[in-house]
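Hey, weird one. I pasted the ATP-dependent sacrificial sulfur transferase LarE sequence into the form twice and got a warning about non-standard characters only the second time. First submission, copied straight from the form history:
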Amino acid sequence: MTAAELPPLVVGFDLDMTLLDTRPVIGAVYHLLAAETGTHIDVDAVVGRLGPPLADELANWFPAEQVPAMVDRYREIYHEHIGAQQVLPGVPDALAAVRAQHGSAVVITAKHPDGARRHLDAAGFEVAELVGSAWADGKRAALAERSAAVYVGDHTADMAAGRAAGVYSVGVTTGGCTAEELTAAGADVVLPDLTGFPAVLDEFLRERRLAALRARLAELGRLVVAFSGGADSAFLLAEAVRVLGTENVVAATAISPSLPAAELAAAREFAAGLGVTHLTPGTHEMRREGYRANAGDRCYFCKAELLDTVGPLAAELGIDHVATGTNADDVVAGFRPGIRAAFERGAVTPLRDAGLTKSQIRYASRELGLSTWDKPAAACLSSRIAYGIQISPAKLRRVERAETTLRAALVGAGIPVQNLRVRDLGDDGARVEVDADLVAAVSARPDLLADLTDFDTVTVDPRGFRSGAMNELLPNPEVFR
């Protein structure tokens, strides 16, 4: 399997005592069964060893011929007590962490599917799939069938199933098994509860994805990196140099009116620090009517111009591949017409292929000592012009002047801005976006905004900076996909 063929992320979770404390529910049902049948049942013992199938547990208290009827009665009255369940610590954040990694959470449990579904619904948990009535080898099979990467459980049988399926197994001691028992059964890591799971998942996936990235780069052999100077393309360039050597990697930064001068200088310095050949071809987006028109698909024409310029340069050098810094977050972010243009022109996306997210790229960049690890997002200047307002070099220079002036003023006033945008809304009006926690401080200093003399009116966006803010003004982004 190549890095580009990595399967989608699937994370399996056990249910009882992993996601939910179901002991109050189970205990109440066993007490009722004992009362109805007059059979002595040690309920404390039952709830202390949750995990095995229901019929196996009932066989400890009833003759074999009565067990099927007791299973039916148990399930009949079970739903009446589900409200007594408790969500275990860290569970909502653990499920959210899987979604943040663009993965699917699958519950794989020995519990009957109907009862398990009632539990999930009562807790408000949304999972991609529920596999019920799975125990021991059934869990192994379910994990293997879904090419799961991780399984989380509280029982030694969960860890054994994970080990047999060849997945990364995370044990939690919220059930009856100790850390030592879980480790001996095959746990790769053991946690007291799921509070620490997001960090564990991120570390596991980051190492896995970095290995996939390096394998993908090795497959490509030689590479031209479309190097904007941002955190993503800078990391890709640095990793390509590490894997392939400077003789097999070329950086290409397009020069056009939409690239701030400071960004070009920083890109040159970064490439020089790596010792890599750095090409700076001129691009001519302004010659493309679709770009100048600045409709919702402007980025398509920008990326098309970039690849139509860099692609022939790569061919002249005998290099088959041009890579962009597209990451795994980009491809699920929704409105990205530039990605389509790059795909149509055969650009490769090693970061995306490896599944690396923006936060993982920043973390790995910091580990490598790259100066770009915490660099704020720096989209091209055209992204500051409201859709429908025609792009021109004069408008781009006006926005660049405004941002340079305002950033200097904010720093001078002791306001430590990181992300800053001056959005040209037309009719000589502008909207300023800064980091959300700085909105109040900037709003309180209208004198600083007065320095933006290229615009008649300037307001501060109360929601703060967010990438793609101009897309919010599009009535129907779907038509530009």
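That's the output from the first submission. The warning seems to come from a hidden character in my clipboard, not from the data itself. The first helix runs from residue 23 to 37.
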